[in-house]
Amino acid sequence: MSLEQALRQGFFTTRLEALARWAMSNSVFPMPMGLACCAIEMMAMAGPRYDVARFGSEVFRFSPRQSDCMIVAGWCTYKMAHAIRRIWDQMPEPKWCIAMGACASTGGMHRCYGVVQGADQFLPVDVYVPGCPPRPDAVLHAILEIQRKIRERTEPVFAFPEKE
Amino acid sequence: MTFDDVIAHLEARFPGGIREIRRALGETTILVRTELIRDVCRVLKAELGFNYLVDIAAVDRFTEQERFEVVYNLVALAHGLRLRLKVRCEESDPVVPSITPVYPNANWHEREAWDMMGIRFAGHPDLRRIYLPEDFRYHPLRKEFPLLGIPGSLPLPEKPESPAR
């Protein structure tokens, strides 16, 4: 069977890796770590107006076991940082992290003893979203950046053990 | 009932107990001798109708003498009166009698003042920190406390290795 014939019958060929990355990148399940006012904009992003469902991320999972992208939305205190880290540790690999807003990125206006001056002090942040709070479109863009990161990943999705 | 009645009643019950009366902008503030605060509150609640304790605040005046001040805001709902009580204490021994036996909601307000300013309330049933971690050693609203805190006093979880991508 030639390629033209196969295409006419609705087949296409690709690499399993590329197919898996395409599927992974279009099903990023966010873990909403809503700590402050940014969480409201995050909810707006999930709602019908901004509609993150277009990009496959509508399933906000409140269980860390079922999510693979933590959105740290708002300022984290030193006391809360331990809880955030525990939730992060419960998320299965591979996982990504978005620091949403000025406070999660740098501490923002909370330049004081109680607020961590940037969530990247205890989490490996992938994308920083500026704004106070950022518009929902900005968070959408951050999710698109995560999708780009997943598609450009060098680590293989499927790891097959070596034959003995 | 007016503020004049309240002050006359208090002065009759506690001769020499009121250190200063200040009336400004329609507000009345009374500075009371520290050791009398619980009895003054008891009289205000039982005999003068001040049945609502709105808030307790602590002030760092940053003075040599009587550095800390505790402010009590009281309301008599039936009379429509608001009264502000103040007591002062020394930096070397910042102890104020607790008014939790009189106003039960003072419990958490006094814990807050202890947490933030380091004022101890004698007779408080459960004087623990309320906001900061229990092993924190400082009182961050004191004026000498640095803005960004004392490095290492609040431990952070360790940052995990960035996963291979």
Descriptive labels:
heterodimer; A: 164 residues; alpha/beta; 4-stranded parallel beta sheet; 6 helices; 4 strands; 37% helix; elongated; B: 165 residues; 5-stranded mixed beta sheet; two-stranded parallel ribbon; 3 helices; 7 strands; 28% strand
The whole-angstrom Rg of chain B is 19 Å
Structural class of chain A: alpha/beta
What is the 3D shape of chain A?
Answer: elongated
Biggest sheet: strand arrangement of chain B: 1-2-5-4-3
**How many strand units of chain A?**
4
The total strand number of chain B stands at 7
Largest interface: A-B, 25 and 22 residues
Query: What count of helical segments of chain B does DSSP give?
Result: 3
- Secondary structure tally, helices of chain A: 6
**Main beta sheet strand tally, sense and closure of chain B:** 5 strands, mixed
Main beta-sheet annotation of chain A: 4 strands, parallel
CA-based gyration radius of chain A: 19 Å
Strand percent estimate of chain B: 25-35%
Q: Structural class of the secondary elements of chain B? A: alpha/beta
Structural overview:
The complex is a heterodimer of chains A (164) and B (165). By secondary structure, chain A is of the alpha/beta class. Chain A is built from six helices and four strands. Chain A has helices spanning 3-8, 16-25, 38-46, 78-90, 101-106, 136-151, and strands spanning 30-34, 69-73, 96-100, 127-129. Chain A has a four-stranded parallel β-sheet. In chain A, α2 (16-25) runs antiparallel to α6 (136-151) and α3 packs across α6 (136-151). Chain A is elongated, with a radius of gyration of 19 Å. Chain B has helices spanning 3-13, 37-47, 106-117; strands at residues 18-24, 27-32, 52-60, 68-76, 81-89, 95-97, 120-122. The N and C termini of chain B lie far apart (75 Å). In chain B, the strands form two sheets. Chain B has a five-stranded mixed β-sheet, with helices on one face. A two-stranded parallel sheet of chain B has the order 6-7. In chain B, α3 (106-117) links the parallel β6 and β7 (120-122). Chain B is 21% helix and 28% strand. With 165 residues, chain B is of the alpha/beta class. The longest helix of chain B has 12 residues, at 106-117. Chain B is built from three helices and seven strands; from the N terminus they run αββαββββαβ.
